Hints:
The chain is built from 14 helices and twelve strands. By secondary structure, the protein is an alpha/beta fold. It folds into two domains: 4-12 and 257-377, Aspartate Aminotransferase, domain 1 (Alpha-Beta Complex); 16-255, Aspartate Aminotransferase, domain 2, CATH 3.40.640. The strands form three sheets. The protein has a seven-stranded mixed β-sheet, sandwiched between helices. A three-stranded antiparallel β-sheet has the order 9-10-12. A two-stranded parallel sheet has the order 1-11. β3 (92-96), α5 and β4 (116-120) form a beta-alpha-beta unit. α4 (71-85) runs parallel beside α5 and α10 (257-278) packs parallel to α14 (360-373). The chain is globular.
Amino acid sequence: MKIRYFDHAATTAVKEEVLKEMLPYFSLEYGNASSLYSIGRKSKKAIDTARHQVAKAINCEPKEVYFTSCGSESDNLALKGVAYANKNKGNHIITTKIEHPAIMQTCATLEKQGYEVTYLNVDKDGLINLQELENSIKDTTILISIMFANNEIGTIQPIKEIGEIAKRHQIFFHTDAVQAIGNVRIDVDYLNIDLLSMSAHKFYGPKGVGALYVRKGIEFERIQDGGHQEKNKRAGTENVAGIVGLGKAIELAYKNFDQYNEKLTKLRDYYISQIEEKIPNAKLNGHRTKRLPGNTNISFKGVDGQLLLLKLDENGICASSGSACTSGSLDPSHVLVAIGLPPEYAQGSLRVTIGDENTKEDVDYLIKLLGTGLNSLTK
């Protein structure tokens, strides 16, 4: 049975060109980048090349890029690092009710440590209200952290306007751009972004490696003790092969950006139109146009989402009901609750995220399965 993969928001396959770049650093060029001899210097040079590739992709300076193990670590380092380094200036952080668990749980930890967190509401499409953001700012506000694009419903926030508000009030602005990298053009200067998180496995790079951009001049504390790697901000021997893969993957993502996004957007819109035309009581979650090119999240009234996923899996379809980091929970998604989705819809959510290898034939197969199988799953 052919496997048709529709869960690219959870992870992606490593591209052949990326793997080819990585392979030498597992066995041939295996030196520790902190070592002074030749094979160590080669590893350090490879890391420097990747740093330049990331910098070029988001329009920052290479020295503003710090490599981490994943997007979650980048989020932790951004929020905790800024909060700890600026506690003499204030203790208030602003975020939203639809952030990834890496942000939500980090904020919860900071609240236990005496920090105050404001969680902004979102509308039915998952967008924040800019006036509510402005009204939430206090004299003690030190950081605004709002995700670039939501991992479950795909809605893209008004990042430039958020950045302008933060800049006007002299508050640092962090964005979790894990889902946005490769799907949205990002210029951190134009968008007034001060800190940005990414993870390689979301844009056809390897798992276990991420990066954090921090604008020059922003103080942040390290949260992991040990060596002096990453300009003394992230202790631990560098994952050279992974970093090389991240650099190559982000380079490829923006080299092929227009073609990739045009393909995904067409397939996404085709899928949505066919579902709305052929399946009654189907509801699109997230903004219709201000959304990631490959993301669809549709709820089917009265359907058990877990049973739906199992039914699809039996027929070779890989999809999800939301974030891979919360898929083990039986509770309705906190994102769907935040946008006000009724329980009879929230429990029947199907996230389909289209990727590079998907075809119209794959989408038609999925639509056919949904058309014939939903009736048997209605509660």
